[in-house]
Amino acid sequence: MQTTETTHFRRLKPVPHTSVAFTDGFWAERTRINRETTIPTQFQRLEEEGFIEVLDVDQPPKPLVRPINEYGLSMQMFFDSDFGKWIEAASYSLATHPDPEIEAKIDFLVDKLDHAQLADGYLNTWFIRRDPEKRWTNLRDWHEMYSMGHLLEGAVAYYQATGKRRFLDVMIRCVDHIATVFGREPGKRRGYDAHEEIELALVKLFRATGESRFLDLARYFIDERGAQNPHYFDEEAKEFPGGKPFNFGTYEYSQSHKPVREQDEVVGHAVRAMYLYSAMADLAAEDDDASLKAALDKLWRHLTSRQLYVTGGMGPAVENEGFTRSFDLPNETAYAETCAAVSLVFWGHRMAGIDLDARFADHMELVLHNGALSGVSLAGDAYFYENPLESHGQHRRWRWHYCPCCPTNLARLVASLGGYVASHDDENVAIHLYAASTIDLEVAGRALRLTQQTAYPWDGDIRITVEADAPVPATLWLRIPGWCRDATASVNGAPVDVAALTRKGYLGIRRDWAADDEIRLHLAMPVEALHAHPDVGMDADRVALKRGPVLYCVEEADNAAPPQHMRLAAGEAKAAFDAGKLGGVVTLAVPATIDRTADWQDTLYRPRPAETVAGTITAIPYFAWANREPGAMLVWLRDGR
Ligand code: FUB
Ligand code: ZN
User: Which intervals hold domain Non-reducing end beta-L-arabinofuranosidase-like GH127 C-terminal (predicted)?
Assistant: First the structure.
């Protein structure tokens, strides 16, 4: 056995999600619920909420279901994006679990979109039906290419799932139209959409078709962003009839305050930022662009050391749906939009593809199991848009949202989750996520199946077995999560020196992998009490409980008092799997003291603190909160140990 210390990881290709089957346990259950409940009920909600009607472009416009707001924007302007994300989610699901009913629903939407498309390729149902004169006049606010980008991602996914080209061809015509309008050539506009999305969608289209013009257009949009003086959005505003009612504050809001390679701090609207950085990572991979990679490294560092909630959520402020000053991470008012968490998974995944450094997949794992997954109920049909870390019971999941961007975003992530598990090239296979599953790969032309048996994330024992017709020479890189302080491994019973063979958080084992080889990995996952950086004032003298990748919270539903009355006490927290709770989760029994309130009556302030009683409190995984009767919840617990 030897390592390949010098291996250069320019680009590891993710396995297609269709090559990974979750066999049982955590993600098998969640992907099943996503497929059986989330995706079908989301289509019902689109119908019930009057979304589908917007596609009937031959009919006179009906009254808006989302009125124009004081900023001149209606959420209805980007309903196309919701169709796009739903089609994308449904297509990923179809690819692994054929379903004629779902396929018929996608075809129904595709018919309407195809019919709506203008002769020149333009496709945005809002402008086609309601405001044809205004197309391309307000890239700053109106999400025109954001919507097209989501339709494009849906079209690529549907084509890959079914081989049907119709929607893809519709969207290629649309992209070719975009390319006639925007660019540096004389007569074209040097614009870009304030809500990033089209960029990463174009890279997907390039990868699906091999046509370099799509990558060229993505590169143009990325390079052009923030690069012009005067600023495109100001120039555009000058020409806007009557002037624009509102500027969403700053160029930072849309990450257009400077050229992307000069950006070193995450700013502005969080989802926009994550989509931009994802596209930059795609382009860095395609172009081998070290300057883009260097900018991304700085942005990643800033996000993860200054701006990220312990849940993996981000963007504390409702005002800009995004970032504020460093270390500003309030708990009860956290915006932490589900879409932002989901799109951090997108970015982290791409970063892991260009640099096999475990900090990327560590965060992918963190946000997946916590701040993203909290966005959907355990039953799979109710949602959170905001993901606070404290509640007094006022936060309730909703069936649908005024601005329903999050549900379909989460659905498309979960439906394609297999694609996040592993990546490879001809000499290397990296496993990023542990989950009971089979992974089918072709490494240098040879078939290799890896089977993971594990109860992860509840347990850190992972058994990986190999199936191969002929030996496959490769380095298998197993992520040793940053949270794990004690990892052991063996191959066919022989111990492996984990410390010596681990490079940037991945344990590398090189050999000719042959049928029946068995790797065992043990990742110790004791309960840990995490402290926040002293500058996060909101969390001073508090701790958050975490076990392995799973973050915990305390919910009133499991306890005799609201968690705000509790203080952790010295003693061991005990973890145990409770099959009957919340669909089967590991809960924590934690020693604590609990404030008594009975003797306070109408007293608001007094010179001695509350009396306390000693007890044991129950903590549950954060992702599973708000699935029972409304009540208080808290992640950062007072620390009295
Ligand atoms: O603006 C489109 C989407 O709606 C954004 O990504 C979300 O933050 C929400 O505002
Ligand atoms: Zn959202």
Answer: 527-638
